[in-house]
Amino acid sequence: MGRSPCCEKEGLKKGPWTPEEDQKLLSYIEQQGHGCWRSLPAKAGLQRCGKSCRLRWTNYLRPDIKRGKFSLQEEQTIIQLHALLGNRWSAIATHLPKRTDNEIKNYWNTHLKKRLAKMGIDPVTHKPRSDVPGAPGGGAEAGAQHAKAAAHLSHTAQWESARLEAEARLAREAKLRALAAAAASASNSSTSAQYLPHPAAAHGLDSPTSTLSFADGGAALASVLEAHGAAVRAAMQQPMQAYEEACKDQSHHWSNEVDAADASFAGAGFTGLLLDVSLNHNTTRQAGSIDAEPEDAKAHETEEEKNYWNSILNLVNSSASPAAVPEHEEYSPAPEF
DNA sequence: AACGGTCGCAACCGCACCACA
DNA sequence: CTGTGGTGCGGTTGCGACCGT
């Protein structure tokens, strides 16, 4: 149906922002809050369209944005989440505190995608490419094993994806409730609260561009679960049930196809499966002398990684009532790692 | 030093979704 | 129900920085 432009193109500045423009936007938002983006430029004295202002604020000027080099753990998280979610940068950003979706997207496109391709891993499917010499899974036996692991990973990814969807849903709901509560006490709102994206940001639930985050590895989610337990459980049941339906058709096939991978899954869990990929990734990087890191640092990050995923999986699992958890073994609570 | 190619990042574009009148 | 405005999101582009010759 087509839409009118977000603003009159005539007379509006485009391109890089100057420090003066940044200062104008920053000081205006700090004093007034952004309010309606479309009307903001005129009020703030900027020759920009509202959309440009919003992007500049969201991706660059906000005080709660971390800039600079991505840590190894952040890289791993991006790769793992990309394997699960694809190019859903905002969803990925929710799991990387203080990183914007734009930054993650850029980092993926300019660094990680190329690195995976160099390793012989298809950055789209996250599966080894057989046409690359020396790629993982090159041999017949290794290939079969990898196929099983990949099949299981895909299987598990569906489950995890459903969970992430539910997390997003419940966080949105929590946000709406919080906004309603904030509206009730709007008369005494402070300026700092005005430019925060939503009240949940006050307890670390915020991500620079998204409505959902687990900045402290799941504690924020825990608080949401605590506050809205019944609604959360109801929300959680939907994707779980949907996935259960899908599994009814597939479970036999899966159980035959991926039993070897399941064995490893039982021992190492989903995190372990992913970490296995990540550790191979690290090994390759070291072999290629790219950002080589000491072994103990790597082990430390691995432990953190396990804890990170454990906290998410356990929190989500604990939120679902026992009756809501399907009996299929794949839905059993996250294994202890 | 000059030039051309490549890389990385900020910013833009356009579509999709949602809320609301 | 439909049209419109506001915003979110992912893809793409433009340009400066960097690097090799």
UniProtKB/TrEMBL annotation:
Keywords associated with the record: Developmental protein, DNA-binding, Nucleus, Repeat, Transcription, Transcription regulation
Subcellular locations according to the entry: Nucleus
Biased composition (Basic and acidic residues): 295-305
Signal sequence, start to end: none
Origin: domain of life: Eukaryota
Swiss-Prot/TrEMBL GO biological process terms: cell morphogenesis; regulation of cutin biosynthetic process
Record GO terms (molecular function): DNA binding
Segments of this protein annotated with the region Disordered: 121-156, 286-305
Keyword Transport attributed: no
Positions with biased composition (Low complexity): 142-151
GO cellular component: nucleus
UniProt cross-references to PROSITE patterns, sorted A to Z: HTH_MYB, MYB_LIKE
Myb-like domain: residues covered: 9-61, 62-112
Domain HTH myb-type: 9-61, 62-116
Protein name as it appears in the record: Uncharacterized protein
Biological source species: Lolium multiflorum (Italian ryegrass)
